[in-house]
């Protein structure tokens, strides 16, 4: 490996930050873009190569992406973590914040175990240009299929009554320590709805992140697809996906900080810092955009993009 240029660090850093939260697979793009460009890019940015310094670079990008998510949702995370702490200390699960906190914990366990067991296998054998392009096409098909299934379900249930979730108020709880106030923001209202998810359904949505171990399959895309199929709105599916992604991405980076501090990071730490800064900025802007986007829009444009981009990459690799 010859190293990591400043241009490579800036481009891949920004790409990682944006694509990690868009349902288009950040890892897939990090594999495909260098392969399409070729030359030193393909050599420097080979994620499947054993003991590659590129892995240390990816660690920095993951940590920066997770920090951007924490910054954007910091008020929500304070509320959710407070709910988890009070649930543990009081040995209860009574409030929406307490229940949502435990749903996030339980839904993260499957992908955490799968990542520890399978990450190296998936990266070594599947993080190559042709399989990645195939998975990207498959990712697009899944996004479009989920939208079609959701549309059929909406058409079938168009006449059903709207269910209004009750708001717990101090008057309803007698003003005791479990009293909560009405939600003040769209995020809090969404979290109230998410807190009503059955445990099994929440764990299934979280487990869908395992599919993203395959380069070309999107983490946010897989969780949103599962959420939509299981009855969530686009807004709630996107929010649950972003909340689920935060601990997973952060853990993936923190667990491999040794790569960054060790020999793999030697000589490229300034590039890692710049790339991480780009990744953090890209992730923050992405989550801000997507949170508003999914209030009224669908996964369809991303599905079409994945199919076209994956097919073009396959053609490029075949014909060149």
UniProtKB/TrEMBL annotation:
It is found in: Cell membrane. Signal peptide: none annotated. It is a multi-pass membrane protein. Its EC number is 3.6.1.27. It catalyses: di-trans,octa-cis-undecaprenyl diphosphate + H2O = di-trans,octa-cis-undecaprenyl phosphate + phosphate + H(+). Its main location: membrane. The chain crosses the membrane at residues 54-74, 100-118, 130-146, 237-258, 270-290, 302-319. Belongs to the UppP family. Bacitracin is thought to be involved in the inhibition of peptidoglycan synthesis by sequestering undecaprenyl diphosphate, thereby reducing the pool of lipid carrier available. Catalyzes the dephosphorylation of undecaprenyl diphosphate (UPP). Confers resistance to bacitracin. This is Undecaprenyl-diphosphatase. It comes from Pseudonocardia acidicola.
């Amino acid at each position: 490996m010859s190293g990591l240029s400043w241009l490579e660090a800036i481009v891949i850093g920004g790409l990682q930050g944006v694509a990690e939260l868009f349902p288009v697979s950040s890892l897939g793009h990090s594999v495909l873009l260098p392969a399409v460009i070729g030359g030193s890019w393909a050599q420097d940015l080979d994620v499947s190569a054993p003991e590659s310094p590129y892995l240390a670079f990816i660690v920095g990008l993951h940590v920066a992406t997770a920090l951007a998510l924490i910054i954007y949702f910091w008020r929500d995370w304070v509320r959710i973590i407070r709910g988890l702490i009070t649930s543990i200390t009081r040995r209860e699960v009574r409030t929406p914040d307490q229940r949502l906190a435990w749903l996030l914990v339980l839904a993260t366990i499957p992908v955490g175990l799968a990542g520890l067991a399978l990450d190296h296998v998936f990266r070594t054998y599947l993080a190559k240009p042709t399989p990645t392009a195939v998975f990207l096409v498959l990712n697009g098909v899944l996004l479009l299929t989920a939208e079609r299934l959701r549309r059929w379900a909406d058409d079938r249930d168009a006449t059903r009554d709207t269910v209004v979730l009750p708001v717990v108020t101090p008057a309803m709880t007698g003003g005791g320590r479990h009293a909560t106030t009405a939600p003040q923001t769209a995020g809090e209202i969404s979290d109230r709805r998410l807190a009503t998810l059955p445990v099994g359904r929440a764990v299934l949505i979280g487990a869908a992140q395992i599919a993203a171990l395959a380069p070309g399959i999107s983490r946010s895309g897989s969780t949103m697809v599962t959420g939509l199929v299981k009855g969530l709105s686009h807004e709630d599916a996107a929010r649950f996906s972003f909340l689920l992604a935060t601990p997973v991405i952060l853990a993936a980076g923190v667990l491999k900080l040794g790569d960054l501090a060790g020999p793999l990071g030697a000589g490229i730490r300034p590039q890692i810092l710049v790339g991480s800064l780009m990744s953090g900025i890209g992730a923050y802007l992405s989550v801000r955009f997507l949170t508003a986007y999914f209030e009224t829009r669908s996964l369809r444009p991303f599905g079409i993009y994945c199919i076209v981009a994956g097919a073009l990459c396959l053609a490029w690799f075949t014909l060149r």
